[in-house]
Amino acid sequence: MRRKASFLILPTLVFAACTGSALFAQSPLPTTSAEDRALAREIFKELIEINTTDTPLGNVSTATAAMQKRFLEAGFAAEDVRLLGPDARKQNLVVRLRAAAPTTQKPVLFLCHMDVVQTLRSDWSTDPFQFVEKDGYYYGRGTQDMKESDAALVATFLRLHREGYKPRRDLILALTADEEGGQFNGAEWLVQQHRELVDAAYVINPDAGGVELDHGRVVVADVEATEKVYSDFQVTATNRGGHSSLPRPDNAIYELTAALNKLAAYSFPFELNDVTRTYFKNLVGQEKGQTGSDLRAILASPPDLSAAERLSTDPSFNSNFRTTCVATRLNAGHANNALPQTAQAIVNCRIFPGHSPEAIRQQLIGLFNDANLSVKYVSNGVISDIAPERKAMVPPAPIAEVFEPLTRLTQTIWPGTSVTPEMENGASDSIYFTEAGIPCYGYSAIALERDDIRAHGRDERLPVDSYWKSLDFFYSFAKALGGER
Q1: Domains of the chain in sequence order
Q2: CB distance 428 to 229 below 8 Å
Q3: pTM above 0.85, yes or no
Q4: Residues of the chain with pLDDT under 70
Q5: Are 109 and 198 in contact (CB under 8 A)?
């Protein structure tokens, strides 16, 4: 077991060496033919138009079976295209591109989830499950999270096979279920039940990281080094109720609302760790004016908390500074003419590394300070009085065989780009492999404007050019990781 300090120091050293464009000689990437682009677009369209939500209308297996069909028709051996899972609607696909000869090198695994977040047609200006191209964007649920990478990697594996590519080690692509929610998380199930299919030297997870743009200007390329802990809490207010003609200020809805107003006004303490500190150090040179000054001020010792407060008005900065909690669902009352006896909210928290869900649950109890409220932990539909003590994944030590080609290719596509570690503010399936002792590196090669992050939201979209660049990246990156005899 490595000491925690070793994990945290190494990203700083390695990433600091990758911040300048002069580090690598840049040469053009292999050209992606019109035929390859057409196939990649066709695959992207097919995946977007399959509903893979965790609802009665959604079915991940429809999507994974469609991709299995493509691989089998392309000539992959049946034993190298495995469709399997614990539920008929949540089947995972594991594809193996075999090495040219037997090798002692462990494979490289590309990990991609196929499910998407629920959405309402009435919220969108287009049908979320129709692939629409307009004004230089692809629209549809999953265009940012993360069917763009699913499609790019399916297209990459098909192209490598068609070209007769013979790697020095196996390359694996896993397309999985229930990363966004549900009871059949495919990554966890594969690690626990079929480790032999996904055992790898390391994992590349495109569900994190990417290139940040500011009005078309490349700011930085992020690689996930750690991530927050995802936790849901059920906050319940109970009351004796009564007739609605005799309203009282202590009814359940009022009590719950008062608690949520406290939460909305509250900020968890400002924090930095080695990963976020390195990220902001690399960002300082890209930011001008007050933002640049404030970034330098929070990196001082002690940090300038007034600068942190100004930066925190930007949600992307704020989420990197602290634990965040927000109410996402509400349910209350039992009749139109009765005072509510019960009111409930789901509070979703993204917990800064170093704090456990149970510690945050206790903080919420203290913040609300109301004996009529309960705060319970929710996971996969199970409600518990006590939350877990898990405190986030430890950053893996970066290795040259990953970061040299990642940096070189990134700087070829986006010249002058600083490559830096980041803390993923959401959560990903990397945790299951990290807990199993397999290092995970999150990088999507997708370039997005900072103010146009629409994953999980309405009118999700992806710049067309961003998709083509990610396709170019993954083709060359897969070959660099696989090696060639």
Answers
A1: 4-226+397-482 (3.40.630.10), 229-384 (3.30.70.360)
A2: no
A3: no
A4: 1-27, 393, 485
A5: yes
